[in-house]
Amino acid sequence: MSVQQLPPIAIEGHKSSGLGTPDHPMRIATRRAAGLDADGWTSELREDVEQFFDDLAPEWNSRDTTQRVVVVRDALERGLDPLMSSGTRGSELEIRQLAVEVGSGTGTYSPLLAERFANVVAVDLSHAMLKFAPASPAHRVQADGAQLPLRDGAADAVVLINAFLFPSEVARVLSHRGVLVWVNSSGEKTPIHLSVDDLLARLPGGWNGVASRAGEGLWCVLRRTTAHS
């Protein structure tokens, strides 16, 4: 497994949220969801997370900034686009049928994915978040990221923008050459944060890809190289 570090880019006016300390409840939940802490993802934790984001939904859009969008766009342009274009066969449409955006919130980043994929399924645990999201261009689904309503190997990409990683579920729904996009818009200060090393340690099977920093954010795009057993 190898990850190429690309040069960072500056984003004028981009400021870290500064919220992501190790004791933040969503940082603790992130590590439990990824299997890095022994307690794991329980029904009680799922309910706590759902309530947490339901409560934030009415003001969630106020957190969206042009700079955050630039972080995501950089991940797609310098990470996803080259990785999905290299070594492909057939038409671009055939390669890019379905992207699954897990933890999609109020839908700020779904249009960026819709520019690249024929279909985007935007999944969020919080029904309140989905109520504030536009009806298009993504198909909105309320579901737990640990149990996605998708068949095995259905997705060409799973996109996690400040969202929990459920390693076995990501591996299950991705196609045999599928791509994982991981974005932390405030880098290590993002409440829902994992390092690239954590990602590689937890994802089953073999992966390679690219990573970089954009302003205060960081991102990693990983491509499956060998299937998990």
Overview of the structural elements:
The protein is an alpha/beta fold and 229 residues long. The chain has one domain: 3-Layer(aba) Sandwich (Rossmann fold). Helix content is 31%, strand content 24%. It has eight helices and eight strands. An eight-stranded mixed sheet has the order 1-7-8-6-5-2-3-4. About 3% of the residues have low confidence.
> In terms of structural class, how would the helical and strand content be classed?
alpha/beta
Which stretches are poorly predicted, pLDDT < 50 over at least 5 residues?
89-94
From the alpha-carbon coordinates, what is the Rg to the nearest angstrom? 16 Å
**CATH architectural grouping:** 3-Layer(aba) Sandwich
Helix content: 25-40%
Output the keywords.
alpha/beta, 8 strands
Explain the layout of strands and helices:
Layout: E1 2-5, H1 25-33, H2 43-56, H3 66-85, H4 92-95, E2 98-102, H5 110-114, E3 119-124, H6 127-131, E4 139-142, E5 155-161, H7 167-173, E6 174-184, H8 196-202, E7 206-214, E8 217-226
Parallel strand pairs: 1-7, 2-3, 2-5, 3-4, 5-6
Antiparallel strand pairs: 6-8, 7-8
In a nutshell, what does this entry contain?
The chain is α/β, with parallel strands linked by helices and 229 residues long.
